[in-house]
Amino acid sequence: MFSSQAGKAVDDALELLEKSREKYNFTLSIKETGMITSVSTGIVKVSGLPGVGFEELLKFPNGLFGIAYNLDAEEIGVILLGEDSLLNVGDQVERTGRVTDIPVGDALIGRVINPLGEAVDGKGEIAFSDRMPIERPSPAIMDRRAVSVPLQTGIKVIDALIPIGRGQRELILGDRQTGKTAITIDAILNQRDKNVICIYCAIGQRASSVAKVRANLAEKGAMDYTVMVVTEGNNAPGLKYICPYAATSIAEYFMEKGRDVLIVYDDLTNHARAYRELSLLLRRPPGREAFPGDIFYIHSKLLERSTRLDEKLGGGSLTALPIIETEAQNISAYIPTNLISITDGQIYLSPKLFELGILPAVDVGKSVSRVGGAAQLRTYRSIANLKLEYAQFEELETFSRFGTRMDDNTKKIIEHGKRIRICLKQQELKPMSVPEQFIVLLTLTAGLLDTVPEDKMQEAQNALIESVNKIPDDTLKRLFSEEKLSDEDRQAILDVAEDAIKTFRHQPNETKTKG
Predict the structure, then answer these.
(1) Whole-number percent of the chain with pLDDT over 90
(2) Where is the ATPase F1/V1/A1 complex alpha/beta subunit N-terminal domain positioned along the sequence (predicted)?
């Protein structure tokens, strides 16, 4: 009885207000507000707001925003996108009626922003053309195409042995300080003049590391086609959590316009830790290694957005290079195994190889591309036995350390393997073009470098690279085509190579004299 009377009173009051609005011509607006009941590190509890939706954006005083995440009967758990020190218990909270979004547009290219779309590079405000939600559904299976176009990284060991295609998700993992970020920066540098937009997403990185990456990209002219979305280690965990989603929405904006996009997540270990912190503060039940049970889901919904779209949707692609940090080479830990199962292959960096100076420190045996030769230039298939030869060498090298007497064939395999290892080394920030890679690798597989002394190998490689302009133009064009490389083309390249390295090779009689 009481409730019906109260409802009638509210209706009468609203009717009176409506008549007054028509008479005096004023605007009537109703806001749903709540109140902060507690403030924790990165987390705010709010009472009120009965109509709030999951992941709705809430507005706090001092220009702060938060995401409604726990919708309990008595209160709402909110992930704060900013400093909690600016809020107090009792402050008012307003609904916005929309989910978290980020400004997008061509004006972002060359800029450094945070996950809220605010410029942090000191170059002033950015003129945005549109806004997109940071969390969007991944493309349907029928809207995707097979991964068949290569994405050249400019790194010999990856392009030849662990190829990456446009639309693929290739995980990069290894212990700290093994060169994970260096590989992704080289991949970004190699996209120059290839009509690929690059997004570098730094999640909870040190400010000095972000500044170094930006300086390297700017020095090489890569910022002309790159967007940096960054959060630093001292930022709120909520910002670290939304950072990769915001970066992916920016990438999707370009992909849906028919562009090819490369996105680097550096790194998802920090993302998982930020989400664990938020989940524990929200009193969500912990699981393995104290991570919440839905940690697999938050990474899969992120990486499933990387794909190659069908022609009817513009034919754009989004290639993802997520980075994960392992501890003591343990790739069977919880987060690494999760991401290995989500992605289309992994590049494992070994600290042992790093200590030996074999850079990039890619462990060929533990690295794999599940797309494989389908996303590789056909010319590379003529050197497909390189991986097998290298595996044989590593196996035999282990036995040779015991001082066992070896036959001539075994010695030949080991000497050849040593040259492979040297040739797969590459300097940082110096990606190589397809012709430069191919002349080195073809010369290597043909055995022409086996008679070059190890201390002369780098000079021989440089001579091969400089001789690329002597290769006939028709042959160079066929390196990029789907045509099979003819025997005449191979011989033409080998003739150029032999002429380039002849001054570095041992002559047979010279070798015998030294023996």
Answers:
(1) 83
(2) 31-97
Q: Are residues 476 and 452 in the same domain?
A: yes
Is residue 132 one of the residues assigned to a domain? Answer: no
Residues 335, 188 within the same domain = yes
Token pair of 137 as six digits: 């559904």
Is 326 flagged in the annotation as binding? no
Using a 10 angstrom Cβ sphere, with 0-12 exposed, 13-18 middle and 19 or more buried, the burial of residue 498 is: middle
The answer to whether residues 82 and 165 belong to one domain is: no
Residue 373 has what pLDDT? 86
Q: How far apart are CA 255 and CA 260, in angstroms?
A: 6
Whether 410 contacts 202, CB under 8 Å: no
Q: Is residue 176 annotated as involved in ligand binding?
A: yes
**CATH number of residue 93's parent domain:** 2.40.30.20
Q: What range defines the domain where residue 406 resides? A: 382-514
pLDDT per position as a tens digit, 220-258: 999 999 999 999 999 999 999 999 999 999 999 999 999
pTM: 0.92
In this structure, the number of other CB atoms found within 10 A of the CB of residue 485 comes to 21
- By CB atoms closer than 10 A (0-12, 13-18, 19+), residue 154 is buried
Known binding residue 179? Answer is yes
Helices (H), 220-371: 237-255, 268-281, 295-303, 334-342, 351-355
Q: How far apart are CA 169 and CA 171, in angstroms?
A: 6
User: Is 174 labelled a binding residue?
Assistant: yes
CA dihedral of residues 282, 283, 285, 289 (deg, nearest 10): 70
Instruction: Spell out the residues 6+ positions from residue 452 whose beta carbon is closer than 8 angstroms to its own.
Output: 419, 460, 501, 504, 505, 506
Catalytic residues: 370
180 annotated as belonging to a binding site for a ligand: yes
| Helix (H) or strand (E) run with residue 174 in it | strand 171-174
Task: For residue 177, say whether it is annotated as part of any ligand binding site.
Answer: yes
**514 has pLDDT over 80:** no
Distance in angstroms (rounded) separating the CA atoms of residues 438 and 313: 34
Residues in the chain: 515
In a shared domain, residues 314 and 399: no
